[in-house]
Amino acid sequence: MKALLAAATLLAAALPAAAADYSLDPTHSFATLEAPRFGLATWRGRLRLTEGTLQLDRDVQTAGAEITIALTSLSSGAASVDQALTGPGGLDTAAFPLAVFKAERVAFAGKNPSEVAGSLTLRGRTAPLTLTAIRFNCYFNPLFLREVCGGDFEARLKPADWALGGAAALGLPDEWRLVVQIEAIKQ
Question: How many CB atoms lie within 10 A of CB 11?
């Protein structure tokens, strides 16, 4: 029996650990859209990330993610622009209140994700989107008494990929910067 237990222990030590599950902390996770309006100052709209899961094993460099974005939460401080962007010619949040990003491939630099390639479903259309890490870190949070991982990621997106034709009428260009800020708590 001792030999069987020793063999099982050695086998378990030889196998890679399973990726840990993390849940998005919606109070510290947001997406920001940025684009110069009429070629002048940069318009910024902030969106809440409402739900999300992250699977991460930094030692064996595996990861996965799925994040839900509340499009109805768009806020830039310019109510008329927000209203136009959330209306039928824009995000059409009455028909499509949520967007979903699903990771399909994650590249690492050392122990941290450096690039997340996946797909974004917005307005009923799915198109590829690659997020590049600006920064990423994990730490033990003394309030939650658990590990928290997160960082900032950015991408360039083209509104035409999701049929956002109304953006041009608002003076927004055909390419926007997307910045995603996430914090996820280990479960």
Answer: 9
Class of domain 18-186: mainly beta
Q: What is the pLDDT of residues 90-131, one digit of tens each?
A: 899 999 999 999 999 999 999 999 999 999 999 999 999 999
Alpha-carbon gap, residue 58 to 114, rounded angstroms = 12
List pLDDT tens digits, range 68-86.
999 999 999 989 889 988 9
pLDDT at 89: 82
**SS3 for the chain, per residue?**
CHHHHHHHHHHHHHCCCCCEEEEECCCCCEEEEEEECCCCCEEEEEEEEEEEEEEEECCCCEEEEEEEEEEEEEECCCHHHHHHHHCCCCCCCCCCCEEEEEEEEEEEECCEEEEEEEEEEECCEEEEEEEEEEEEEEEEECCCCEEEEEEEEEEEECHHHHCCCHHHHCCCCCCEEEEEEEEEEEC
- C-alpha radius of gyration, the chain, whole number: 20
Domain ranges of the chain: 18-186
Q: Is residue 163 very low, low, confident or very high in pLDDT (cuts 50, 70, 90)?
A: confident
Residue 128 bridge partners (DSSP): 119
Phi then psi dihedrals of residue 143, to 5 deg: -80, -40
> What is the Cα–Cα distance from 45 to 66, expressed in whole angstroms?
21
